[in-house]
Amino acid sequence: MQDKNINRVSGITTVDKDPWEDIRNSVKSLCDDFPGEYWRKLDSNRSYPEEFVEALTKAGYLACLIPEEYGGSGLPLKAACAILEEIQRSGGNGAACHAQMYIMGALLRHGSEEQKNKYLPKIASGELRLQAFGVTEPDAGTDTLSIRTKAEKSNNSYIINGQKVWTSRAEYSDLMLLLARTSNDKNNKRTEGLSLFILDMQKAKDKGLTIKPIRTMINHATTEIFFDDLEIPLDSLIGDEGKGFKYILDGMNAERILIASECIGDSKFFLDKMTDYATSREVFGRPIGQNQGIQFPISRAYAETEAAALMVERAAELFDKNMPCGTEANISKLLASEASWKSAEAAIQTFGGYGFAEDYDIERKYREARLYQIAPVSTNLILAYIAQNVLGLKRSY
Predict the structure, then answer these.
(1) I need a surface site. Which of 50, 123, 176, 243 has the fewest CB within 10 A?
(2) Catalytic one of 255, 262, 313, 363
(3) What is the rounded distance in angstroms from the CA atom of residue 351 to the CA atom of residue 348?
């Protein structure tokens, strides 16, 4: 796809230099060392991209949002968006490590100074990985306020019992942020009674923590987690007891914006592949890209991607200015995930039978792009959020 003189953050033709151009070029160069063959092999074996994550860590990209005083780069969310977008555009999969960028925000904003000094420098250096986020449960699903995993105080510790599901990267993470119920007091607000903990999984294994992998249609390294009288120290609590739901809400806007950036990258991957193939592939004596039946779906996917990119940029700008951005974060995730899916559909149609062949990487990315219609928040829940919080319609759930 030709986009000379295009600002790839917003998609607007401009004479201004993209402030993250150097980062984008560096990420692209790193990703060149991990071509399609690398990701296809991992996908086939359902293996974790250990070498890729290690390379990102050494380059400092996974610590980009950690303040400099804790060993990170102290960059804004827009920089993290650029990093993840380029990973996806290269054909890679940032989902293997993207959680560290937004999970650590809860620790940074609400953790004690002792917790920040203990964990953040080691996360920044790569000595520790904070990749696992234990929130969703089998019965509660996206109704987070209905979770039942309990954390009960007992002398100098908390005892954890319960189950989590769709906890991705737990097998490859040293630390987990865990949301658990510490109170069932019906007199409290519904949003109270949940607390956030930082859990050392290396110490917890075989002491009440069990991890069970879930095989899915994509290589996502997701799991079920079981807690059976797991004892953790009192200083595992982040912030105040009962305020955990509020703490994780802080990170959800960042999560949605970063995931939206990945979707923009996915869409650009498909657009790059489609335009190149439509130009070179000849049928009936002429390039297939000369046919409107091929041109129009590609053009529409491009237009929707550029529009979604504008909303992602807007959401990230508000986030970086510490301004309310819940609506923009949700809309950016909605539009970007739909744009990437539109591009994925157009790519399959453009490539025809070859779109189903593993060697072209279209079918792998097609499967990966589908995830973001339902995760980390489903399209329907975003629409319900807009209806209730923006349009003033009655709550539907």
Answers:
(1) 50
(2) 255
(3) 5
Amino acid at 50: E
346-381 per-position pLDDT tens digit: 999 999 999 999 999 999 999 999 999 999 999 999
Q: In the annotation, is 127 catalytic?
A: no
pLDDT at 190: 80
* 168 has a pLDDT exceeding 50: yes
- pLDDT(344) > 60: yes
Distance of alpha carbon 17 from alpha carbon 23, whole angstroms: 13
Query: Which tens digit of pLDDT belongs to each residue from 59-74?
Result: 999 999 999 999 999 9
Cα 64-85-79 angle, rounded to 5 deg: 30
Q: Which class is domain 130-244?
A: mainly beta
CATH class, range 21-125 = mainly alpha
Nearest one of 354, 368, 333 to 91, comparing CA atoms: 368
Give the confidence band of 184 by pLDDT, cuts at 50, 70, 90. Answer: confident
| Domain segments of the chain as ranges | 21-125, 130-244, 246-389
Q: How far apart are CA 261 and CA 233, in angstroms?
A: 37
CA pair distance 374, 378, nearest whole angstrom: 4
Q: Give the dihedral sign, CA 139/141/145/149.
A: positive
> What is the predicted pLDDT for the residue at 15?
52
Give the number of other Cβ atoms within 10 Å of residue 396's Cβ. 10
Q: What does each C-alpha distance from 30 to 52, 239, 263, 380 come to in angstroms?
A: 9, 37, 20, 36
